[in-house]
Design brief:
The structure holds two protein chains of two kinds. By secondary structure, chain A is of the alpha/beta class. Chain A has helices at 9-27, 33-52, 56-63, 71-78, 121-126, 134-149, 167-171, 174-185, 202-206, 227-235, 241-247, 252-257, 276-295, 299-311, and strands at residues 84-85, 98-105, 108-115, 154-160, 192-201, 213-217, 221-223, 263-265, 316-317. In chain A, strands 1, 2, 3, 4, 5, 6, 7 and 8 form an eight-stranded mixed beta sheet that branches. In chain A, helix 10 packs across helix 11 (241-247). The longest helix of chain A has 20 residues, at 33-52. Chain B is an alpha/beta fold. Chain B has two domains: 1-56, no CATH class; 57-280, 2-enoyl-CoA Hydratase, Chain A, domain 1 (Alpha-Beta Complex), CATH 3.90.226. Chain B is built from ten helices and ten strands. In chain B, the strands form two sheets. In chain B, strands 3-5-6-7-8-9-10 form a seven-stranded mixed beta sheet, with helices on both faces. The two termini of chain B are 21 Å apart. The chains are: A alpha/beta, B alpha/beta. At the A-B interface, helix 7, helix 8, helix 9, helix 10 and helix 14 of A face strand 4, helix 5, helix 6, helix 7 and helix 8 of B. The complex binds zinc ion. Zinc ion binds at residues 30, 32-33, 35, 49, 51-52, 54 of chain B.
Chain lengths: 318, 282
């Protein structure tokens, strides 16, 4: 049985009924074809209804769904298994929370980079919960420079609860690593597309997030802090996480409305985890379209409009 | 060197003279060693303890007084102020928080930018004010730094930034986050114009400010014993589940790990910047 979030309870109930009906059918004694068809239709309808109107907090939950596809799953699908992963920052180590490499996408070579989360307890630890150390950001920059050298477009897939706040991370300059990426990404001569596929938490997300086009999946979130930590700082406990999720205006729709991202990629009606292939195909379509458009501009135009775009972000009174 | 030092000293002696009339009984007690000085001596000593050298936190008024020749400068976009794009409210409405911060500090937001002369060098200087919502970076801070950099490019002069901040301003959420990208992108333009950027990190410089412009100086300088880091010490302590080593995330720690060019005592700051600027000039 798949994992269901609390607000998915009606979906879970129908799923359970459907499974029972399918077992009955397998036994072959009673004809339950109609019941199954009926349940399947109900399931789809319920899914659509629930997902049509998620609250910001429910979207945060969806973005962290344990069955939601992570970066490498997207990359493998998008590159039709041609992906060649490249490792290491050439200084300290290979950060397992950040992956990257070349793959063939729609007939051309593209550099894919992103934070990687793990599927089970062991892998979650191995991937450090998708929280990169400075080496991760430096590996990402190395790969971006490599792509630039050979004139290949860059796609970053963002999914992180934040940059790792550990002791060694501080010793090795977490702040400097992220800062360096911001100034360098602003000047990359090749097309850069950034997609928030799950969690976009703060500087740890932005560290690979300065692109010509920044897109968000429908149920992803992006902000300066997670709702839990926002609640902890402002109210001294986690109880206000739902209020914080509202206040932070962290949904794709809010972010687009505030001019802080360039577009939204739709998800299948039950979220990316409900139909991964469909999610991959939506992302594929968005990347294809944007690479084609960005490739029409020359490098200087891309760089100056990228810098211009970020320079215009903010809300001030003169 | 000595002539620079004299001139730098004059800058702070002026206000000291003005202060002569302040009533007696104004004392400063060092937050680090509890040494007691008169406020007058303390400010004449660049707000540094004469016993243990503790650098008291000061704001843009004091730094401008220390750095700009004869305390003369022209402020840029003085009245640029925060909106409330998200109508943010926690225990207090953001608009009310802004109002009370303005009233309390007499400042408009957490940074001031100005152009003027530093020991004869034309420069643009930005300086953060920690008193204003923890020196946090929202849209105004980002925009003022961005416009300060524009001004430096227009005037073809170096940009100096004095950081003192708890990081991004939560009440402007992703708007604040994007100021990191914005200020960094502007610094790319400054770099392309081959103009120097000197970053001065003071106590404290953390979060999104460390992870953007503060770490991007052609030369990164810090005051002694300042707290500098990405994650705050409390968060790091919680993450690793044990006490932090002595001196963790201090200026001296960052110098040792290769993220600062050097540490400079506030009394030497102006002289030092002047020398550095001379050496960076084309
Ligand atoms: Zn002292």
């Amino acid at each position: 049985m798949p994992v269901f979030l609390d607000f998915e309870e009606p979906i879970a109930d129908l799923f359970e009924q459907l499974e029972k009906a399918q077992q009955t059918e397998a036994k072959g004694k009673v004809d339950v074809k109609d019941t199954i068809a009926d349940l399947e239709a109900k399931l789809e309808k319920t899914r659509k209804e629930i997902y049509k109107d998620l609250t910001p907090w429910q979207r945060v939950q969806t973005s962290r769904h344990p069955e939601r596809p992570y970066t490498l799953a997207y990359i493998e699908s998008l590159t039709d298994d041609t992906f060649i992963e490249l490792h290491g920052d050439r200084n300290v180590k290979d950060d397992k929370a950040m992956v990257g490499g070349f793959g063939m996408f729609e007939g051309q070579s593209v550099m894919f980079i992103g934070q990687q989360k793990g599927k089970n307890t062991k892998m979650r630890q191995y991937r450090n919960f998708g929280m990169p150390n400075p080496e991760g950001y430096r590996k990402a920059l190395r790969l971006m420079k490599l792509a630039e050298k050979f004139n290949k477009p860059i796609v970053t897939l963002i999914d992180t609860p934040g940059a790792y706040p550990g002791l060694e991370a501080e010793e090795r300059g977490q702040g400097e690593a992220i800062a360096r990426n911001l100034i360098e990404m602003a000047q990359l001569t090749v097309p850069v597309i950034c997609i928030i596929i799950g969690e976009g938490a703060s500087g740890g997300a932005l560290g690979i997030g300065v692109g010509d086009k920044v897109l968000m999946l429908e149920n992803a979130w992006y902000s300066v802090i997670s709702p839990e930590n926002c609640s902890a700082i402002l109210w001294r406990n986690w109880d206000h996480k739902e209020t914080a999720a509202d206040s932070l205006k962290l949904t794709a729709e809010n972010m687009l409305g505030n001019g802080l991202i360039d577009g939204i990629i739709p998800e299948p009606s039950g979220g990316a985890h409900s139909d991964k292939e469909k999610a991959f195909s939506f992302v594929r379509k968005a990347i294809k379209k944007n690479i084609a458009e960005l490739s029409k501009l020359d490098a200087d135009e891309r760089v100056s409009s990228r810098i211009e775009k970020f320079s215009n972000m903010g809300f001030v009174q003169d | 060197m000595s002539s620079w030092f004299k001139r730098a000293k004059q800058g702070v002696q002026t206000p000291t003279k003005e202060k002569k009339e302040t009533p007696e009984g104004l004392w400063y007690k060092c937050r680090s060693c509890k040494n007691v000085m008169t406020s007058e001596d303390h400010s004449a000593n660049y707000w540094v303890c004469d016993s243990c050298s503790y650098h008291e936190r000061i704001g843009s008024i004091e730094y401008f007084r220390i750095l700009f020749d004869e305390n003369k400068f022209t402020e840029i976009n003085r009245n640029l102020s925060s909106g409330d794009p998200l109508t943010f409210e926690d225990t207090k409405k953001y608009v009310d928080r802004l109002k009370s911060s303005k009233r309390k500090t007499g400042l408009v937001d957490a940074v001031r930018t100005a152009h003027g002369k530093l020991d004869g060098h034309a420069v643009v200087i930005g300086c953060m004010d920690f008193n204003f919502i923890g020196g946090s970076m929202g849209s105004v801070v980002g925009e003022k730094i961005a416009r300060g950099i524009d001004e430096a490019i227009k005037k073809k002069v170096p940009f100096i930034m004095i950081s003192k901040s708890g990081g991004a301003r939560m009440m402007e959420a992703a708007f604040s986050l994007m100021q990191m990208a914005k200020t960094s992108a502007k610094l790319a333009l400054l770099a392309r114009a081959k103009l120097p950027f000197i970053s001065i990190l003071t106590d404290p410089t953390t979060g999104g400010v460390t992870a953007s412009f503060a770490m991007l100086g052609d030369v990164n300088i810090a005051e002694p014993r300042a707290l500098i880091g990405f994650a705050g010490p409390r968060i790091v302590k919680e993450t690793i589940g044990k006490d932090l080593p002595e001196g963790f995330q201090t200026s001296e720690f960052l110098l040792e790990h290769g993220f600062l060019d050097y540490i400079v005592d506030r009394k030497e700051l102006k002289n030092n910047l002047s020398s550095m600027l001379t050496m960076l000039e084309k």
